[in-house]
Amino acid sequence: MIDNYLLEELVTFSKFGTLAATAEELMVTQPTVTRGMQKLEEELNVKIFDRQPNHISLTKTGILAAKEAQKVLDQNQSFIETVRAYEASHTTIRIGSIAPGPIIMLHSMDNIPDNVVVNDDLLEQAAVINDLENHSFSVIVTNHEIMTDSIESRFIGSEQLSVNLDKFTYLANKNSVKFEELKGMSFIVVNDIGIWKQIIQDNIPDAKFLYQEQYDAFKEITQYSNFPHFSTNISRNGDHLPVNDGDRVKIPISDDASKMDFYVSYLKGQKHQVNPLIELMSKSWK
């Protein structure tokens, strides 16, 4: 079996092109790299280097070997990460979400177990099944039910979108509004709102969305301007959102697209481990 360090030297040489640069990148001496490359050729029993006076390069076989070496290194790293994640999944419950509301709610819970780790970065919908099966996460909150041979889901609650409008606007007197009625308006929006971003963009005609990367900037702009902004029955728990100072009125949006059901998905084999957390989330959601 060929040692990983020899494959790393080959891949690094393929990237940087010289023994000196390879040695510098790997923080070893140039003679060490030279000996490693000679040993690799001996173990493969093929010529992978074209040695010329004052110059060394990869042969066509060497180029192929470097590509295959990278695959092996990637597989080894994946092996390590998968085993470590599996071990961690039995001691730590790592939870993620495709939308910010559930994350905000989790941070607002004062009875969350010590072994629960909340991931603040929103996850991609397409990666949920893979993230569960490779044990990157124990629980993931999604807006759709997942049922496979290894994964099951449980309904956790619904999130209802509202718009916070200047109390002097004509819409502020209504009990609810439709997306169509918000046509052409400009909104202050936190950039990282997951699936909600596509919903507001698709459903509010001719609107302008002034996205803010930082919550502090979002709060400051809403405090010193009359731009409308969005909130939900879940996001109200977050201390990063602006406090309603009486200048805005929170109006529910009545369209079907403004309500989103959420589910917690997990591996069936970990149901017993994650069920206490799910129970706590279900109670907090209500």
Q: Would you mind describing this structure in some detail?
A:
The chain is an alpha/beta fold and 286 residues long. The protein contains 9 helices and 11 strands. The protein has helices at 4-16, 19-26, 30-44, 60-89, 100-108, 128-133, 196-203, 215-223, 271-285; strands spanning 49-52, 55-58, 93-97, 116-118, 139-142, 151-166, 186-190, 208-212, 229-232, 248-252, 259-267. Strands 3, 4, 5, 6, 9, 10 and 11 form a 7-stranded mixed β-sheet that branches. A two-stranded antiparallel ribbon has the order 1-2. It has a two-stranded parallel sheet with strand order 7-8. Helix 5 links the parallel strand 3 (93-97) and strand 4 (116-118). It is elongated. The N and C termini lie far apart (57 Å).
